[in-house]
User: What shape does this take?
Amino acid sequence: MNKNILMPDYNHSILNVITSILKNYNVKTKYNSLKEIDKLLEKQYKNVVLVILDGMGENILKNISPDGIFSKNKIDTITSVYPSTTTAAMTTYYSGKPPIETGWIAWSQYFKEYGRNIDVLPEKDSFTGEKIDVKNLTIKDIIGYKTVYEQIREQNKNVKAYEILPSYCAKKAKITMSANTVEEMCESIVTLCKNTENKFIMAYNDNPDSIIHKNGCYSQETKEFIKKAEEEFKKMLEELKDTNTLLILSADHGHQDIKETIDILELEEIQKCLMMPPTFESRMVGFFIKDNKRKEFEDKFNSLFKNKFILYSKEDLLKSNLLGYGNKHKKVDDFMGDYVAIAISDARILMGTYLSREKKPLDEKKSTHCGLTKNEMEVPLIIFDF
Assistant: This one.
């Protein structure tokens, strides 16, 4: 197998980090926890803080700040879940479950209830950008889940559960603080940790992901963000001394710089096999294929892209357990289509339509994720203990 390919390890992943936290609060879960985190949590901290910096993969730290405060306090390298993308990975953090159980798989998913591909986090039509507003039918009605905040509060009446996140993000906890920068996030963590409550805090920032998409993994802009974040953490850590706090820092996924972009509209031999536009993301592409074109599609796709993408049938993908183990969500089969192509190189496939082409220019991201490369799958596990 290609040495740059890395499969998710559901015994050594971000799922196991949140499982350790749930077990600390007496929440029953069928997933394994991480022994390193379990050992630390035996100290019974007043404050348990989980910080997620979106897109801060292992390769980012290793190349940009190998001697910084993040790298110096890293205790392990773990995998993301698959798909290695915010929609799937952050939902694992928020639910304590892998993607196979949540149904939150990728940025764009086809919902037969709407007859559309929907960007599930902003709840917009994937091709037109139109906000989805259907009375009595929301995305949460279709693929809702019980949050870790609810699970913790149900088992611990004396524990408060807080979230800190950018103001545009949908709130998931009853007690939420908005923080649009790392500086604001760190200030909010300090404020909460200095009160006398027993608490769990999950804090999320949407960078460096946004910066990396635009500028690349190892750009000056990415470097400046990491260095600035480390400075803000140094200030925060001084303030957190003697607060009886365990702070866990990680990411949802990593990133892969892109060198080749393939426009689905230019692939006539592929287009004639499709029943409808592709779904998911540019490095994990879901295809709905005409019944009499399946063999033709397989042969053509593999002849063009066998060294760039792994093509799975829906059946083979589900048997592979790439999406994790557990009770398959009832919507997964709908979302999967017939085939899924997963990137193992530095290429991506743009899933446009002529309508979306008119609405917005060709995507110009320099880096992205949702493939199976080590760069996308590996994330650091960093610990600060007070």
User: Anything to note?
Assistant: DSSP finds 17 helices and 18 strands in the chain. The radius of gyration is 21 Å. The longest strand covers residues 198-205.
